[in-house]
Specification:
mainly beta; four-stranded antiparallel sheet; 2 helices; 7% helix
Length: 319
């Protein structure tokens, strides 16, 4: 066993700052489907509570300690907040720009980063990605003062209480932290694509079980296009047919395009199944008859950050 050494070069760590705040208002069903940037977020003070010992005595001695449930709370501070947060702060719009208070407060989630540093890399060493679930903002004081010779921007502050979400194999939790220095960079990049959105996908807050799958299980298999309907080189396809592509893994983003053989892009509506593996392209209007069509399967990336090599499939419509 090696002897302990304190403060070795490269092991003098610290944590500082807060940035990249994102608000996710909870939807029906407990999901967080759409994130918005929280500009002006200046501080998050995490305040766990509970986990207090209640001693029991027997035979004139301490028999054991019973621990109370642990709660997660926090305090947010910001110079401003996104419009979407108004509904989380007990406000509602009677008309555009006409706001009333004392309304029902919506539950929300939050994501933000703190900077990790050390004595070698400084603030470039890494970061922690913090996720909060099931948060409710308590009513808070807002102090307005006249502008004077020492003006200061108003700082808004909210105290949060939380309701934990389920985690398979563990107790429910309201907080999750990911250390960029200890996880696979490509997997972390895939998670951030989910959190912050991409050209083809809105930002959302995944629940802990999805994150655990993303980081823990790894890709179950190489990404592949399992099937496509109409099949490749199919003839006499109905002019009102949809194009359905099935992949073996859940897809993060894609750029599948339907064109005629002459290169004319066919506008389509896109939809996914609940597992994120089946993509349906529904043409906005009936396809031209007796026409060759091409499906270019490109830009497909799964949640494990695997990229599918571009494929081209063909079919022809009925007269």
């Amino acid at each position: 066993m090696a002897k302990i050494v304190w403060d070795s070069i490269g092991e003098r760590f610290y944590e500082t700052g807060i940035k990249n705040g994102v608000l996710y208002v909870q939807a029906i069903g407990g999901t967080y489907p759409l994130g918005v940037a929280w500009n002006g977020l200046t501080a998050v003070t995490e305040s766990p509570s509970g986990a207090e010992a209640s001693p029991l005595y027997a035979d004139d001695i301490k028999y054991l300690n019973m621990m109370s449930a642990e709660e997660f709370g926090a305090t947010l501070e910001a110079y401003t907040y996104p419009d979407e947060f108004a509904q989380c702060d007990g406000s509602a719009a009677l008309q555009t720009g006409v706001i009333i208070g004392q309304q029902k407060r919506k539950t929300f989630g939050l994501a933000y980063k703190t900077t990790l540093g050390n004595d070698v890399s400084g603030n470039d060493y890494g970061y922690k990605l913090h996720l909060i679930y099931g948060a409710i903002a308590k009513p808070s004081e807002k102090a307005y003062q006249t502008i004077n010779d020492s003006p200061e921007a108003i700082t808004f502050s909210w105290e949060l209480s939380t309701t934990p979400v389920l985690v398979s194999g563990n107790k429910p939790t309201a907080s999750l932290v990911i250390d960029s220095t200890k996880v696979d960079p490509s997997t972390l990049a895939s998670l951030e694509d989910i959190l912050y959105g991409t050209v083809g996908a809105d930002p959302r807050l995944p629940l802990p079980d999805e994150i655990a799958t993303l980081f823990g299980a790894g890709a179950p298999s190489a990404l592949a296009l399992s099937s496509i309907t109409p099949t490749d080189d199919a003839d006499n396809v109905a002019k009102n047919a949809n194009i359905v592509l099935t992949f073996n893994n859940k897809i993060l983003r894609e750029a599948v395009v339907l064109t005629t053989a002459a290169g004319v892009v066919v506008p389509v509506a896109r939809s996914w199944d609940t597992d994120g593996k089946i993509l349906t392209l529904n043409p906005n209007s009936e396809l031209d008859g007796s026409t060759a069509h091409i499906v270019t399967v490109g830009g497909v990336v799964d949640i494990y950050n695997q990229v599918l090599a571009a494929e081209v499939k063909n079919f022809s419509t009925i007269a």
